[in-house]
Give the backbone structure.
Amino acid sequence: MNRRSTRASGTDRMPSGVPGFDDITNGGLPRGALTVVLGAAGTGKTVFALQVLASGAREHGEPGIFVAFEENGAHILANLSAFEWADSVIPERGVHLLDAQLSQAVEHGGAFDLIGLLAVVKAKAEQVGARRIVFDGIDVLLGYLESASRVRQESFRLRDWVHESGLAAIVTAKADALGNAVQPGLELLDFMADCVVAMHHRVAHGIALRFLRVVKYRGAAHSANEFPITITHAGVEIAGNTTVEMSYPASAERISTGVERLDAMLTGGYYRGSSVLVTGVPGTAKTSLAAAFAEAAAKRGEKTLYVSFDESPAQIVRNVSSIGMSFSEHIDSGMLHLRSLRGRAESPEAHVARIRSLLSELQPKNLVIDPLSALSQFGNEPDAEGAALQVIELAKRAGITTVATSLVGNAAPLSEQTPLNVSAIADTWMHLTYLNQGGERNRTLTIIKARGTGHSNQVRELVLSGTGVTLADVYAVGGEVLMGTLRWEKENEARKARTAAHNGAVLRQKKAAVALAATSARIDDLVRQRAIQEAELERLQIDGAAEAGHRADETDELLQRRDADPEADVRGNTVPS
């Protein structure tokens, strides 16, 4: 919790030791003033008062006195044994118990006042140096007075004594469901007190719920809202978000989701210390996706707390082994801690307190809540929603990366909704659903939002196998994304078409090659024929030339033999001059 100055708005305040209370009162209870704690039986009034005394003595060195009007000291100590600070409620540690039960004679006579009691208490306070004091069950004592006017008179006496003593005083008294004092005459306590705290409880759908409200705080700013409380081994705790301002770290470091392709869709994975919400109907693999994150974290050597509201640890270990995850080795190494809680066994605030205690004890770097929507099983939606937000903010303030699943109704499996409305505070929101195609259901994943990072807008098929969780590539035909068997059929048809086209192309290539070879053969034959014809032509030309030369020689020889005139034609004709 954020700690503020113990002095605000002119009122000196002391730390209460009640987690969350000092935040809603801006510092704690008023010093040197009267605080009245009203509530019905079982609301935690006595525990609240004793916790204030124990914290003052243990943490601040301020001794205290507990004046009991209903129980004796032995009973009180026995009832306190379950609380972790019970060993502080002893004189040696600074807390002193005074039994102030009246004798039978006084009870029946009604003839008494507080003068003697207050004198004894004052002497004791001076002796032990007390700074805090509790009058527990003052209505039991004043109830023996004969009239309401006497009750009012002694109430004023007590108020004046507190202011004069300088002690920080707490007075507890019974109240009805509306917060009004049950004892006639004690209604003035609200007006006399400097601070009034009302505690009440109710049962919703079989679950007991406790609440606290600071009705009044003189001279000081405070929250007047009603806050859920729990009573655990640590005592009373304010379970709600008690601070107005949100302040937690924002890391730029990326860590793996446990699914490689999902890391790519988120451009690197989840931000360290962020909150991740996974919603979906039953059977869409929300738990598997959360388990993948837990296993990846354990493999990185990061301690992870896995809180399940659905399954026992043994069942979780068995189930995740079917998708190739070995939780057993990570549990043995101390990197993974499984805790299974029953959603309807306690109030949402009690579950928050239990988770807070586990986080404090284990100091994990990662948290898985499966499913967070289990907090709404007892039927009170506003309280459950507040508890869910508390868990997320509790982890964010501690820098713990949180992956929480949330179940949505079967009536609207395609609807992107969160029954606890925690999607507004989650940094990353992924929705899982299924599509009916080809007579089967196929799981799908969509990233609805991822603050501070780019992310894919594709609807991807989520596939579970013996080797883990993965996302299938997007396969679209005619603008429609196909999945499962229908996708396989289309892909098979496409493969056959590609094979047929390839075979056709090969056949055409072979035919073209044969035709080309035939053409080449014809061309070669024509070339050979041409060469022969060219050779024949050349031979004929040579023979012709030789024949012409032979004839010329014969003509010359004939002329010589006839001694003919060179100018005469060899055929007997005279050559003209």
The chain has 15 helices and 25 strands. The mean pLDDT is 83.
